[in-house]
Amino acid sequence: MSSEVMDWDSVYRQQGIFEGPPPWNIGEPQPELAALIAEGRIGREVLDAGCGVAELSLALAEQGYTVVGIDLSPTAVADAGQAAQDRGLRNASFFQADITSFDQYPPGSEGRFNTIIDSTLFHSLPVEGRDGYLRSIHRAAAPGAHYYVLVFAKGAFPPEAAEGKPNEVDEDELRAVVGKYWEIDEVRPAFIHASMGPIPDEALETLPFDLDEQRRAKMPAFLLSAHKT
Fold it and tell me: Example GO biological process term (predicted)?
């Protein structure tokens, strides 16, 4: 996506550039992040940065984590809150706010969270919003907190994909931007899985991406792990 701000609420109302739900809504946490949970690498107080409809937050809450999700879209936040209520999850709460400004965070956020997870938010921000975002989540992090970012790698989308194209990153760019506020532990190749709708068998050989076992796109990404010193 270019630095132009997308109308995210229209996307979550299914009135935006996608037909139906946005492709990053896959009905569960991204597999790369689910693996971190399974490995026990998530602390008990979690900030889900750019939570969307909160598939990640809800999965964490069901496992006993306390989760706060923040998103710019009031529609996404309302849907997430309703899902938590329907499932009886009192340990998940959601707030509509601009995550690039700490002043909009819920009270008591400063120094609270020992894990912050960015599940495909980073590449959705305008480039000029990155610094404010990283500064804000750093303020929200407790000493020693861990920060995980799942972000599209450069080349994940063809150059002609203009409308809605994320701000993909290369490894050096990602390290330089995040390293200003966080101590980076690792950046490794990863995948972002996306729901693409029905794909005819005859189209499989010409797809510009691989598919997982559920016929979801597997698109090149990075998984960054960092911590607060």
Answer: methylation
